[in-house]
Amino acid sequence: MRYAKQFTVSLGNLSTVGSLWPIRVVVPKYSFCTDSYEPVRQAFIGPDGKEIPRELLKRGRKVTGSDLYEPVGETAEIQEARKSTLEKNVLAVTLHAADEVNEYLYPSDNQGYVFEPVKLVSGRTVEDKANELRHDLLHSIVEDPSVALVGKANLNGHEGLFRISLFQGKMSIQKQMYPRDINDFNFNVNVVTDPRIREAAQETIKQMTTGFNPSSLTNSIQQRLDGLANGTSMEPHDYVGDLLAELDKILS
After folding, report:
1. Within 13 A of 73's CA, how many CA atoms are on the CB side?
2. CB-CB contact of 48 with 149 (8 Å)
3. What is the mean pLDDT of the chain?
4. What are phi and psi of 13, to 5 degrees?
5. Residue among 146, 158, 140 at smallest CA distance from 20
6. If you average pLDDT over residues 181-205, what whole number do you get?
7. Which residue of 27, 35, 55, 67 is 20 to 30 Å from 221, comparing CA positions?
8. How far apart are CA 105 and CA 94, in angstroms?
């Protein structure tokens, strides 16, 4: 399912239009419900133990070292401040040296998207050679590891800072944390200058590099949860444990 049917990426006068497809699979959440599996609603309880209607609640910012909150503005004002002033679904990027960007930006945990260069009219794909050519030029720029393309966008009503990169050979965009949201690390690491260490590192790479098998990397927690939901056991069999148990019997 496309997240954005038509999304524009532009670098100066170079722009291309396409669709955004989510990278991460959406997994159904495990939510609270009644013992008869009917939906429930969230309740807000005050210090006196009484429920407070949602429409009477205000927004506050927690005071450091206290259980109290400080005012941050009226709810309507906060909602208005959160609205993006950027044109919807347009990412205008600028080009920078990757080393400079890497020092100050880091991917957020938000969903990432793959960009498909396709032009839609009334929901139907129409051929646009000029759009494909502009995409190919932009794609070739992104392929260069020495540069980084970053910019802000209003993605379906959610504003953020994004970086263009490649995923599975396709252009992709990933939301980034703003520099002010990244911790400062007040320690230094050694810059390796000893050629012997570098040679040893390269030898280690040669000796330890193996083929990558993506099917071996599984979310075991999600597998166990799926097993519970489906009524099947997803726990891997402990063959090593069985073997050790047999040896223990023999030795005893």
Report:
1. 8
2. no
3. 90
4. -85, -5
5. 158
6. 92
7. 35
8. 14
* Contact (Cβ atoms closer than 8 angstroms) between residue 116 and residue 21: yes
Query: What gap in Å lies between CA 165 and CA 138, rounded to an integer?
Result: 11
Identify whether the C-beta of residue 162 lies closer than 8 Å to the C-beta of residue 173. yes
CA of 126: how far to CAs of 18, 139, 159, in Å? 11, 20, 29
Secondary structure letter of residue 179 according to DSSP? G
Please name which of 55, 54, 154, 167 lies closest in space to residue 107, comparing C-alpha atoms.
167
Give dist(CA 127, CA 175) in Å, integer: 29
Q: Domains of the chain: which residue ranges? A: 4-27+83-179, 218-251
- 46: Cβ contacts below 8 Å, ≥ 6 apart: 52
110-136 pLDDT tens trace: 999 999 999 888 888 889 999 999 999
CA distances from 73 to 62, 83, 247, 249 (A): 13, 15, 69, 70
Tokens of 113: 């998207």
Is the pLDDT at 159 greater than 90? The verdict is: yes
Q: For residues 13 and 104, is the Cβ–Cβ distance under 8 A?
A: no
Q: Give the C-alpha separation, 196 to 192, whole Å.
A: 10
Instruction: Tell me the chain's radius of gyration from C-alpha atoms.
Output: 26
Residue by residue, DSSP assigns 52-96 as: --GGG---EEEPTTSS-EEE---HHHHHHHTS--SPBTEEEEEEE
